[in-house]
Design brief:
This protein has 16 helices and eleven strands. It is α+β, with helices and mostly antiparallel strands. Strands 1-2-3-4 form a four-stranded antiparallel sheet. Helix 11 runs antiparallel to helix 12 and helix 11 runs parallel beside helix 13.
């Protein structure tokens, strides 16, 4: 999503990026109470970690980052509107549900068929323990339960707290208007979350909610779904502890197509390190003393690159449905042919545009000896460095032996290494 925003801005579009913080739900209430913390103390801690990771990964900060707790009045008002228009109803315990049968367009985004929605009457549904008329109806407001503690708010129909779907609609419409251009999220949110957002928003306003939707697909780790139970869930700090930088992580995560699953491996991080070093050497060569160009300055340049710019093909790939893998490929192809760089200034601007679009903050260029090492030696050095960080001493020794056989020595420093030819 960060790459999408960057490409839009570099292409000349004006953006207003809203990133919602949904800081009240079953999990946050349950876990905050288990830890003896207030809801605010609990969510602020995790929000701090999240923002730190975003900064480390070089994500552009959103223009607005609202929290659900800070927008309870807007949520109560939306529920009142839906109840007045007969799209919502109150149950005996004080909960409020959206009546899906009242919104015929329900399911158009996810293409869920009407027969797949269980709209039969129910006395009590065990999934959320609230009464409702139909199994398909979803909660707009959840009545107070003893386990909620003090985490409840007063509404005309009784004490309780908002439902997750309601929170997102209210914050989106409050800062972007009743209709806006683009809504992002993961594919796992299409149904029911985004479908419910559309239903409650459009039922209330009578206007289209989001004109376009941008969904990213799941991440695999070592060809398995990422989860705690599988033991293959890595935080950014976990990867740092293994010796990999946030920028190497970013490179791997953006290198695939957003609509196709990406298989994340530790080996891919080693390959990312080698690629970033190659790009850093290219940047040192292309800049030739030129001043660094900011994202804002690049956005002020022409929205397109001339056809004879060496990096024009990479830029066109990014504009073609964010084809990042093709853009990276075209970038490395361009770097192989130094004869194309007849206009150093234009070439530097083109290269910088691609780096800014991808959000890549490049490391310092390698020393001359490391830069001149053959690709095989650089790959072995990267693998050995990663193995050393993982305390895989056997693999590290094997890589060092292969480097020696190639005629190269690897000298380790605290945060990096360099290669020198054996005499």
């Amino acid at each position: 999503q960060d790459v999408l925003r960057r490409v839009l801005e570099l292409a000349g579009w004006k953006t207003r990026h809203v990133r919602n913080i949904t800081d009240v739900d079953d999990k946050t209430i349950r876990q905050s109470q288990a830890q003896g913390k207030t809801l605010t103390e609990f969510t602020d801690y995790w929000l701090g970690l999240f923002r730190a990771d975003c900064a480390a990964l070089n994500l552009l900060p959103p223009h607005v980052e609202p929290s659900a707790v800070a927008h309870i009045p807007q949520q109560i008002k939306l529920v009142e509107t839906l109840m007045m228009k007969q799209h919502a109803y109150r149950t005996d315990d004080g909960s409020v549900y959206f009546r899906i049968d009242s919104f015929p367009e329900y399911g158009q985004l996810s293409r869920v068929r009407e027969r797949e929605l269980n709209t039969g009457a129910s006395g009590r549904n065990l999934s959320d323990e609230y009464e409702r008329e139909s199994l398909a109806d979803f909660a707009l407001w959840k009545a107070r339960k003893p386990e909620d503690g003090v985490n409840v708010w007063c509404a005309p129909w009784g004490e309780g707290r908002p439902g997750w779907h309601l929170e997102c609609s209210c914050m989106s419409m409050h800062y972007l208007g009743e209709s806006f251009d683009l809504h992002g999220g993961g594919v796992d949110l299409i149904f029911p979350h985004h479908e419910n957002e559309i239903a409650q928003s459009q039922a209330a306003t009578g206007k289209p909610f989001a004109a376009h939707w941008f969904h990213t697909t799941h991440l695999l780790v070592e060809n398995r779904k990422m989860s705690k139970s599988e033991g293959n869930l890595f935080t950014l700090q976990d990867l740092r502890d293994k010796g990999f930088s946030p920028m190497e992580t970013r490179f791997v995560l953006l290198s695939g197509r957003y609509g196709q699953p990406l298989n994340f491996t530790l080996e891919s991080l080693s390959a990312a390190r080698a690629a970033l070093k190659k790009l850093a050497r290219a940047a040192a060569s292309l800049s030739a003393g030129a001043a660094e160009i900011s994202h804002a300055q690049l956005a002020g340049q022409s929205a397109s690159l001339s056809a004879d710019n060496p990096f024009a093909a990479a830029w066109e790939a990014l504009k073609d449905d964010l084809n990042v893998s093709e853009a990276l490929g075209q970038t490395f192809v361009a770097l192989k042919d130094a004869g194309k760089f007849t206009d150093p200034t234009a070439s530097w601007l083109g290269f910088q545009r691609i780096m800014h679009a991808l959000g890549l903050a490049l490391p310092a260029a390698d020393d001359e000896a490391t830069a001149s090492a053959p690709a095989k030696a650089q790959e072995l050095a990267s693998r050995r460095w990663a193995a050393k960080k993982e305390k895989n001493w056997q693999l590290a020794d094997e890589c060092r032996a292969q480097l020696t056989a190639l005629g190269w020595a690897m000298q380790d420093a605290k945060d990096d290494y360099k290669l020198t030819p054996l005499k």
